[in-house]
Amino acid sequence: MNATLTAVALSLVSAVAYASAAVAQARLAGRSEPGTGVFRMLGRAAWWSAVALNAGGALLHVAALKYGPLTLVQPLGALTLVAAVPLGARAAGRRVTGTEWHGTILTLLGLGALLLTAGGTAPHETLSLGEALAVGAATMAVVAGLSRRGTRPGLRHAAASGITSGVASALTQTLTVAVTDHTGPLFSWRLVTVALLVSAFAMGGLLLAQTAYQGGLGAPLAVVTLANPIAAAVIGLALLGERLQGGTIALIPALLGSAAAIRGVVLLSRAQGETMSLADRARTEPAPSAQSRVVIGSPRTRDDRLVLSPEPRGTRVGGV
Known about the structure:
The chain crosses the membrane at residues 45-65, 103-122, 128-146, 158-180, 186-209, 221-241, 247-268. Residues 301-320 are annotated as: Disordered. Keywords: Membrane, Signal, Transmembrane, Transmembrane helix. The protein is mostly helical and 320 residues long. The protein has one domain. Helix content is 67%, strand content 0%. It has helices at residues 2-31, 45-67, 70-73, 79-92, 98-117, 129-146, 155-180, 189-212, 218-239, 251-284. The longest helix is centred in the C-terminal third of the chain and has 34 residues, at 251-284. The protein is globular. It starts with a helix and ends in a 36-residue tail after the last helix.
């Protein structure tokens, strides 16, 4: 039980770090010109601050995977979206809306139901070299299809980012367990291959997320948040021998929790999309100038400029 609490605590702090990084990336994307390549952002300090936050979140995530299974740690990644709500609101200088609080509560309730059914034992199984290569090849094929050339930045790139991050987590768990449990040599071909795949997928997920955030933070972050645990859970249940506690009966709270969490994520993404649309509209609409203000009853001069001079005394409307 202590291992489970440790995994949860580390996952919570990791989610805050990831949320801060997502807000920083979204603000950077909002300040960049449309069509700006992600590699051009490498010379900006804001980009590297987001990278540092992502790195901190990743290290905490790695530590959590040592103490908890994928089916426990990955659903907690949805707290990234929950943490991003107040952080994003504060960065935008506004208050959190009622819809956002509603979505936050539903997401937390759904996560609570999922945690009741997640496996509570520390992981011990790892992927073989063949399994790691198969997972890597399948992931690359899916990501290539979602982010093919000519695709408009948005939800497809967000889904690709979530999938690569989830697969990186599954591979990271294999790397962490193999090293800390001393199940084999530290410099075997398997561990070197897994480490290279983790690095490639982690950086790919970061760049794909930056591209997805060009369309805003809410909906892309929601898709990343959902795709990440789904990809990791598939690997954990199919290849790592992880199981849900309680057997078949546990599927009922798991399904209810999933429905509540999905509904909460939808509300959060909708609310954030609305607030960002209002902010974009306020930023793009020019403020009325003093010369363009219409004053009722003000006559026009010959050069058609609006003046604020009143009607001469004794002048009647329609009079001669």
